[in-house]
Amino acid sequence: MLYLIGLGLGDAKDITVKGLEVVKHCRRVYLEAYTSVLTVGKEALEEFYGRELILADRETVEQEADNILKDADLCDVAFLVVGDPFGATTHSDLVLRAVKLGISYRVIHNASIMNAVGCCGLQLYNFGETVSVVFWTDTWKPESFFDKIQKNKQNGMHTLCLLVKMSEKITVSRMKSLFVPNKYNFYPADIKVKEQSLENLMKGNKIYESPRYMSVNQAAEQLLTIVQNRRLQGEEPEVTESTLCVGLARVGAMDQKIASGTLQQLSTVELGGPLHSMIIAGNMHPLEIDMLKLFAVDESSFEDNECQRNT
Amino acid sequence: MLYLIGLGLGDAKDITVKGLEVVKHCRRVYLEAYTSVLTVGKEALEEFYGRELILADRETVEQEADNILKDADLCDVAFLVVGDPFGATTHSDLVLRAVKLGISYRVIHNASIMNAVGCCGLQLYNFGETVSVVFWTDTWKPESFFDKIQKNKQNGMHTLCLLVKMSEKITVSRMKSLFVPNKYNFYPADIKVKEQSLENLMKGNKIYESPRYMSVNQAAEQLLTIVQNRRLQGEEPEVTESTLCVGLARVGAMDQKIASGTLQQLSTVELGGPLHSMIIAGNMHPLEIDMLKLFAVDESSFEDNECQRNT
């Protein structure tokens, strides 16, 4: 049996009791390595689980899936994923390979960023399509995620923006593969991917750069730039400097931080270390507004007309 | 400290290790009663947690929140919620009351139906607004959720349909409060509400009817009726008998069941006991289609043009 087990979002103890039991009895336990954005590392997990963990990075999952699945028809193998196995990251490929090999699988769910963002008080019900925001380079500054945000907003929906992580030297082609405008977003996995520098990639060296995480500040700044660009193009963007947003850092961890305010305010708010996410609010119910006020950079931002619209 | 703790979706062991530790040390532990759609009851939870649980039904939460919060500034109180505390059901009201009373709170997240539906292989990224499907009465047959599904589909998005539970004798006004067309859906809590019969409601008796859960079959039948209605009105609905859908039963439980197929097929598929949910698929990536085929009522349904659109 292949077990896909969600670890949740905080630390080692966010695994479920059921998940922990499975981890303890499995023959082999893999940890999806490009995920390790828990507040603790592999060693802390190993100590708490009392098990050695085999790191399975993107390469391993894609190229060595057969190793992971080896004998999983005869013994139990666990594949651990930060968040939920079918949250922001999809592990459909591993499931499909398993089924093809006649291996049964089971999912042990947990919280993922996709549902835990509800902690800010915005209703999960009222979210539209989720978008990924990627780092711009000098020559590549995609804006299509902005169109999705605007479409959600026009429909009154909130937008969850996942902020992509990458090394400074990531290749442009790699980055483009993360972000395919007008196609399907299957790349949130890359929030957490190990990245090779262009030089090492060309040399075939498996040396990875230290990661760089996008902050809410950076995402807000990119959005503000797009707002300006659109105005220069004669558009009247739906999302503006005064649009209400939420910045979330380390959701589910002990030092989780949430800040709500205008897009302008979020470009300077201090939320600390990764992982950050951001929400662009759509229409809000009074109860949603009351909740967001708990995290307000400046409560008066909530007194204008925008958030009262349609309520 | 007030702890809002998600219990996940399956049984007693789906609580997180962290959540269980908190439950064990809290002075009082409340179980949100209108949630109990785990596969186990209160007694099984009490046995596993080693703690007595105080049932807190809708009435208690709304009218007796002060009891729940009593002394929570001096001691620790836990409020247990099936799924995630900010999943389909919102507990913002309790949080806001706590903050007003100067009581700190913490959320211990878990899987909820809002993210666990990803197990069918459809990307959470690509879901639009979530809708609730309610039981029709002879005189009240709302169709506005259908418009939301169609809007999502036009935008290429999937729609999660939460299927509402209620007693057979629920009052129409109560049902209308569950489902407010063109306004905000704050009522998924009511999937799990204890219902009074009209007679008992009028007499002021606190006698609740045994609940009736909507099945995927029933939801599909209602949708098929709306499709027919729309055609009679001269419309060409976007959602039809051959639209691909997913029926999910008891997600996260050992006997979870998933079936994919056309809306017509789902009107007769057998998924067993509650709780059921349903997804109306939007545009699909080939990987999403491959996953859905694992659960196909009839794989040939996936060979037509519809699901290939935009891929």
Automatic annotation (TrEMBL), chains A, B:
Entry keywords, A to Z: Methyltransferase, S-adenosyl-L-methionine, Transferase
Domain Tetrapyrrole methylase span(s) in chain numbering: 1-161
Catalyzed reactions per annotation: 2-[(3S)-amino-3-carboxypropyl]-L-histidyl-[translation elongation factor 2] + 4 S-adenosyl-L-methionine = diphthine methyl ester-[translation elongation factor 2] + 4 S-adenosyl-L-homocysteine + 3 H(+)
InterPro entries on file: 4pyrrol_Mease, 4pyrrol_Methylase_sf, 4pyrrole_Mease_sub1, 4pyrrole_Mease_sub2, Dphthn_synthase
Pathway it works in: Protein modification; peptidyl-diphthamide biosynthesis
Enzyme Commission identifier(s): 2.1.1.314
Keyword Disulfide bond carried by entry: no
Residues annotated for S-adenosyl-L-methionine binding in this entry: L9, D84, G87, S112, I113, L163
Keyword Methyltransferase appears in the UniProt entry: yes
MF term (GO), any: diphthine methyl ester synthase activity
GO BP: any one term: protein histidyl modification to diphthamide
NCBIfam families from the UniProt entry: dph5
Similarity comment: Belongs to the diphthine synthase family.
Function according to Swiss-Prot or TrEMBL: S-adenosyl-L-methionine-dependent methyltransferase that catalyzes four methylations of the modified target histidine residue in translation elongation factor 2 (EF-2), to form an intermediate called diphthine methyl ester. The four successive methylation reactions represent the second step of diphthamide biosynthesis.
Protein name: diphthine methyl ester synthase
Source organism per UniProt: Chelonia mydas (Green sea-turtle)
